[in-house]
Amino acid sequence: MLNYETNKMFYKKYLYKLDIRNSLAYSFREKNFTLARNTLDILQKDLEAKRPLDLQRGLRKQRISTNALYDGQKLLNIFTTFEGDFKLRVHYNSMSIYSNNEDWLFKISKLITKESLVAFHSPNPNYKQYLNEKTILIENDIGYTYKVTLGKKAGDPSFALWADKNTKQVKLGPILRQTLLDRGYVDNMYFYARDEKTLQLCNLMLSNIRSVDKLVVKANLDK
């Protein structure tokens, strides 16, 4: 299992993330534990009857390993008995578990098969206190203090033209710049603003700012 450092809270809420791989992950999507339980029960009956562990998914059958079944049963029990807050994100056979309870995620990693473990994300204890829903930790100073993420509206060409003349105040990537010029949709695209005064100016020019994150330089925290 790989280990990564958390430099930005997941979903602006969670410090820790455990990534695992399981062919039954889809049945846990949206915390649909009823579906997960029904699926696991079907497979358990097949196992006891010594039948192949096959699940019909659309037009094809999927062979499920006994390890995937056992891990799925353990995960269902863990999720339904845990009283704390957590989030699941499922994509095909991959599952990400988000929580602020490091011990709980560590417990999960010890219960399921090692081959299922993909990665664990946790903050550096030296910088954990600086992480909150509006900060991003970066290694070195890039000359800008804020990351500004845009919303679902169409782009404003005038902002791109202004940014071209004020590169010391804001930094736009080439794709965002062109999308703004084309009046395309800039949902989830972002740029950097130098300081709070610049940020206030951007707020006056744009009506499509979704979120603002402050960039905190680790090198400055070590001084």
Tell me what the structure shows:
The protein has 223 residues and is of the alpha+beta class. It folds into two domains: 2-130, no CATH class; 135-221, no CATH class. The chain has helices at 33-48, 66-81, 102-111, 157-165, 174-181, 196-205, 218-221; strands spanning 2-5, 16-21, 54-57, 60-63, 86-91, 94-99, 117-122, 135-138, 146-150, 170-172, 190-193, 209-217. Helix 1 runs antiparallel to helix 2 and helix 4 packs across helix 5. The protein starts with a strand and ends with a helix.
Structural descriptors:
223 residues, alpha+beta, 2 domains, 5-stranded mixed beta sheet, 7 helices, 33% helix, elongated
Element layout with pairings:
Layout: E1 2-5, E2 16-21, H1 33-48, E3 54-57, E4 60-63, H2 66-81, E5 86-91, E6 94-99, H3 102-111, E7 117-122, E8 135-138, E9 146-150, H4 157-165, E10 170-172, H5 174-181, E11 190-193, H6 196-205, E12 209-217, H7 218-221
Parallel strand pairs: 1-7, 8-12
Antiparallel strand pairs: 2-6, 2-7, 3-4, 5-6, 9-11, 9-12, 10-11
Helix pairs in contact: 1-2, 4-5
